[in-house]
């Protein structure tokens, strides 16, 4: 069974494929390109690169959150549309888990971070021990909350690292982002395929993004 993975939770898109052997391929777009038309185009390119069609798929996996509210809605809408039309199962994967799965630093303890704006961060902590074991659930908090985990010997990775560095100033030297964003879609596909095999799927009618926190009123601007 081939599963398509979609991540549109950040300032770029990532789409990938996975089968029983693992990730087949993954590709990311340039920052700032996450609308539905561009996502459809990227899906088509990824499928074409491997000689697949939508009809070849056995399921869809989408990064369900946390992340950009607009981006999450775009990804879920596209995934639902494909699943409705082809009668495919849909599953959702944590965006922070996908980041952790793309880790390229040598550490058994990592904390995946995304910028949540409003002076906050989305984060989740993991220990690598024959796979990733989540030790802190998907959360939202301050730079101080993340700093506490770093003081507990968790290595920070993810797209929120640059903003975290600005918040902390010279208090703590931080590594590079520590993950391969190009592989996000592929890892969403890998994790999603496992979930689908285990029967962990979403209801197409009821599925919504995992925002973690309530969006601000429309007049709020980042």
Characteristics:
single chain; five-stranded mixed β-sheet; 32% helix; Nucleotidyltransferase, domain 5; 6 helices; 222 residues; alpha/beta
Low-confidence region ranges: 218-222
Structural class based on helices, strands and sheet pairing: alpha/beta
Strand portion:
25-35%
CATH-scheme architecture of the largest domain: 2-Layer Sandwich
> Cα-atom Rg, whole angstroms?
17 Å
Count the DSSP helices.
6
Oligomer: single chain
Mean pLDDT: 91
Helix content: 25-40%
Gross morphology is: globular
The largest pleated sheet is described as:
5 strands, mixed
Structure commentary:
This protein has 222 residues and is an alpha/beta fold. The chain has two domains: 3-96 and 181-197, ATPase, nucleotide binding domain (Nucleotidyltransferase, domain 5), CATH 3.30.420.40; 103-168, 2-Layer Sandwich (Nucleotidyltransferase, domain 5). Helices cover 32% and strands 27% of the residues. The protein contains six helices and nine strands, in the order E-E-E-H-E-H-E-H-E-E-E-H-E-H-H. It has helices at residues 36-49, 69-86, 95-101, 143-151, 161-168, 184-197, and strands at 3-7, 14-19, 22-28, 59-65, 90-94, 109-117, 120-128, 132-141, 155-157. It has a five-stranded mixed beta sheet with strand order 3-2-1-4-5, with helices on both faces. Strands 8-7-6-9 form a four-stranded mixed beta sheet, sandwiched between helices. Helix 3 crosses helix 6. It is globular. The chain starts with a strand and ends in a 25-residue tail after the last helix.
């Amino acid at each position: 069974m081939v599963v398509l993975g979609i991540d549109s939770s950040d300032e770029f898109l990532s789409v990938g494929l996975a089968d029983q052997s693992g990730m087949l391929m993954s590709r990311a777009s340039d920052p700032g390109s996450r609308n539905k038309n561009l996502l459809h185009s990227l899906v088509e390119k990824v499928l074409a690169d491997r000689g697949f069609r939508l009809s070849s798929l056995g399921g869809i996996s989408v990064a369900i959150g946390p992340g950009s509210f607009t981006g999450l809605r775009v990804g879920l809408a596209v995934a639902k549309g494909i699943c409705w039309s082809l009668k495919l199962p849909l599953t959702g994967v944590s965006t922070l888990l996908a980041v952790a799965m793309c880790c390229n630093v040598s550490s058994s303890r990592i904390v995946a971070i995304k910028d949540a704006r409003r002076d906050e961060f989305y984060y989740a902590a993991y220990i690598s021990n024959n796979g990733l074991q989540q030790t802190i659930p998907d959360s939202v908090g301050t730079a101080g909350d993340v700093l506490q985990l770093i003081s507990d010997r968790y290595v920070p990775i993810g797209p929120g690292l640059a903003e975290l560095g600005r918040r902390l100033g010279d208090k703590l030297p931080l590594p590079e982002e520590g993950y391969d964003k190009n592989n996000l879609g592929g890892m969403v596909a890998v994790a999603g395929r496992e979930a689908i095999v285990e029967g962990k799927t979403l209801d197409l009618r009821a599925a919504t993004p995992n925002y973690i926190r309530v969006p601000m009123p429309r007049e709020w601007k980042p």
